[in-house]
Amino acid sequence: MLSNVKITENEMKFIQLLQNMTGATVVDCIIEEDSLIFTVKKGEVGLAVGKGGEKIKRFRAMTNKQVEIFEYMDDPDKFLRNALKPAKVKDIRLVDRMDGHKIAMVTVDPHDKGIAIGKNGENIKKIRFLAKRYFSLENIVVN
């Protein structure tokens, strides 16, 4: 699925822990300073989070880290639309630039631009990182 993604021993430990606690199939894990970003198999976000968020709350308490979960999809358009929720995405264009890099031009509802970008750009930074890791997209431009 993600043959180019390298997972460290530490990331593997967190993957095992989340899988054992939730039953969800974890595809990837990224460790940041005080948070963890997981990508789970398509259709398993609810399983990972649990009813009322109980599973993820228990996981947060156990690890003492903030946790964010994204749903993996092998289509960059679908992945980006899903990752940007609840922002309403109007259009996504994948562009091959002259320098050989690929970028995504994302148009969102004007009222949702702040949601898509997030406070201090945190949402879009994470999504850019994942899009580069999974789809070799060099940038995501939100309009």
What can be said about this structure in brief?
The chain has 143 residues and is of the alpha/beta class. Helix content is 39%, strand content 27%.
Task: Detail the topology: elements first, then pairings.
Blueprint lengths: L8 H14 L3 E6 L3 E6 L4 H5 L4 H10 L2 E6 L4 H8 L5 E8 L5 E7 L4 H5 L4 H14 L1 E6 L1
Parallel strand pairs: 2-3, 5-6
Antiparallel strand pairs: 1-2, 4-5
Helix pairs in contact: 4-6
Overview of this protein structure:
- The chain is α/β, with parallel strands linked by helices.
- The protein folds into two domains: 9-71, K homology (KH) domain (GMP Synthetase, Chain A, domain 3, 2-Layer Sandwich), CATH 3.30.300.20; 76-142, GMP Synthetase, Chain A, domain 3.
- It contains six helices and six strands.
- The chain has helices at 9-22, 45-49, 54-63, 76-83, 113-117, 122-135, and strands at 26-31, 35-40, 66-71, 89-96, 102-108, 137-142.
- α4 (76-83) runs antiparallel to α6 (122-135).
Sum up the structure in keywords.
three-stranded mixed beta sheet; GMP Synthetase, Chain A, domain 3; 39% helix; globular; 143 residues; single chain; alpha/beta; 6 strands
Looking at this structure, what is the CATH superfamily of the largest domain? Answer: K homology (KH) domain
How does the major sheet shape up? 3 strands, mixed
How would the global form be characterised? Answer: globular
**Whole-number total of structural domains:** 2
Strand content: 25-35%
Separation, N- and C-terminal Cα atoms: 30 Å
Counting DSSP H or I runs of 4 or more residues, the number of helices is 6
Q: Secondary-structure element order, as H and E?
A: HEEHHEHEEHHE
**What is Rg?**
15 Å
By CATH, the topology of the largest domain is GMP Synthetase, Chain A, domain 3
Residue share in helix = 25-40%
Assembly type of the chains comes to: single chain
Strand order of the largest sheet: 1-2-3
